[in-house]
Amino acid sequence: MEELLKQIEERRTSFKTDSYSMSIGELVNLYENKEIIIRPEYQRLFRWSHGQKVKLIESIILGIPIPSIFVYQDESGVWELVDGLQRVSTILQLFGVLEDNDPLILEGTKHIPSLEGFKWENENKDFELPQGLKLAIKRAKIHLTIILSESDKRAKFEVFQRLNTGGSNASNQEVRNNVMLMINPDKYNWFNEMATNQDFLDTLSLSDRLYDEQYHMELLLRFIALSHYQYNHKKDVGDFLDDINEDILNKDTLDFDFVKENFELTFSTLNRILGEKAFKKYNGDDFKGKFLESSFE
């Protein structure tokens, strides 16, 4: 028992942190004054789409909370970004100060369609964000957790690893499923019933991991989206699917009986003719290999 408590106390004292909120304007000033450093080499190999960037700015404008930023404070007081690269970079790009990047041009969103074409500063003043909105964005608060220099030297890497690999992140479709259940359980049941159609599942031939991530339900959503809606080529596919998911939940313009009938006929036919080979690559003799999303689409 003594040894257990000793080990816990030793590790606790190796992490010294502080936290507070600061305005976005202050954060931008810190970057311009080189008082916060962005080192992307140990960040995830991931870059946000334009749509994801615009969604973050929309959240700030609408007052929707965004996740905390984690920084490491060195002995000179300079902050090094540990987690939050995409959020901070997007904010800096909006302000037009992010090195080696053009200023962010906004696009219309679901909640603010009139954002289309606006920039922080624009020669065409008709498409420059109004001064009042700029001030509101500058004054919006963002929460920071600071790993102090007194911490163990490995602390920033330990924190980064725990933040990015410590848990199981929900897939995009798992998030959509949860939204569907919260907003309209009846629509979710309709959707789930089709997703468990045996002809459909037999043609997919997916791994257990993909089923766990609800990928088969995303494929059903793709089928509905690409069969019954006009695809918007300006949108990221994920954003497009989010829009269709919301349309299914909130509108009755879709002929649900027809969609189900069409779906069942399509996959019963495919399963009868090709079975699990339906969406695999043809090698000249046969259809083999893994499921191909491009073939499905």
Task: Give an overview in words.
The chain has a five-stranded mixed β-sheet with strand order 1-5-3-4-2. A two-stranded antiparallel ribbon has the order 6-7. Mean pLDDT is 84; it is low at 42-46. It contains 14 helices and seven strands. Helix 3 (50-62) packs across helix 4. Helix content is 51%, strand content 10%. It is globular. The protein has 297 residues and is of the alpha/beta class. Strand 6 and strand 7 form a beta hairpin. It starts with a helix and ends with a helix.
Main sheet properties: 5 strands, mixed
Count of DSSP helices? 14
Helix/strand/pairing class, anyone?
Answer: alpha/beta
Give the rounded overall mean pLDDT. 84
Cα gyration radius (Å): 24 Å
H and E string: HEHEHEEHHEHHHHHHHHEEH
- Please report which band the strand proportion falls in: under 5%, 5-15%, 15-25%, 25-35%, 35-45% or over 45%: 5-15%
Separation of termini?
A: 59 Å
How many beta-strand segments? 7
Q: Segments where pLDDT lies below 50 for 5+ residues?
A: 42-46
Helical residues, percent: 40-55%
Major sheet: arrangement of strands? 1-5-3-4-2
The rough form would be described as globular
